[in-house]
Amino acid sequence: MEKGIAYGVGVGPGDPELMTLKAVRIIRENEIIAFPGTVPEESAAYRIAAQAVPELPNKILLGLNLPMTRDPEVLTDARQKAAETIAAHLDRGRNVVFLTLGDSTIYSTFTYLQTLLQDMGHRTELVNGIPSFCAAAARLNVPLTEDRETLRVIPAWNEESVNLEAPGTYVLMKSGKHLSRVKKESAAAGLSVQGVENCGMPGERVYEKMEEIPENAGYFTLLIGKK
């Protein structure tokens, strides 16, 4: 029996109209749709995709326990179990479509499962989506880069400070939990910063200046700084 394929499908940043035609087609063509979280209907990826694919609730929804933690042992165990759950379906010749926010190649949860599944001998495919920072730049109505500017994408959830000294454009992703530090470092580096919170999702807020960004902004707060 031919084994199934595990697809990592990016559903974009939040607006269902920003889902690609390919993402919609892959979801419609397959019956097993996987999500991060034990209750699929509660995941952000489900809420986005269900608006573009009305038949999604009638699919086989596979919730995978992938906790938000930095504990390496917990993460390793959870990812291994999730990969084994997907692999059990692939071994029966059934495809599994894992939905992930934004783009499937940028800080995606599926990346870890992909590696494990490939090590098990399974075939995987990535279906890219619109990255959150591209959607945020469009929402702010500003270009990310011009002429020969350098674009730097930085995971702002890191505990350590980041180097913001070089000229160009900086994307500081998921800044919410470390917003106070990131704002101070951006100001010290002379960055002109704008931001979007929950881009394309309910509760979206647009900040034209760094001074407008509240200290309690949410996890999905993305900053774009220019120098």
From TrEMBL:
Family: Belongs to the precorrin methyltransferase family.
Pfam families for this protein: TP_methylase
EC number, as in UniProt: 2.1.1.130
The protein's annotated pathway: Cofactor biosynthesis; adenosylcobalamin biosynthesis
Lineage: Bacteria, Bacillati, Bacillota, Clostridia, Peptostreptococcales
The encoding gene: cobI
Gene3D superfamilies for this protein: Cobalt-precorrin-4 Transmethylase, Domain 1 (3.40.1010.10), Methyltransferase, Cobalt-precorrin-4 Transmethylase, Domain 2 (3.30.950.10)
InterPro entries according to UniProt: 4pyrrol_Mease, 4pyrrol_Methylase_sf, 4pyrrole_Mease_sub1, 4pyrrole_Mease_sub2, CobI/CbiL, CobI/CbiL/CobIJ_dom
Record keywords: Cobalamin biosynthesis, Methyltransferase, S-adenosyl-L-methionine, Transferase
Name of protein: Precorrin-2 C(20)-methyltransferase
Domain Tetrapyrrole methylase: 7-211
Organism (species): Mogibacterium kristiansenii
Top-rank taxon, per record: Bacteria
An example Gene Ontology biological process: methylation
Molecular function terms from GO: precorrin-2 C20-methyltransferase activity
NCBIfam families (alphabetical): cobI_cbiL (TIGR01467)
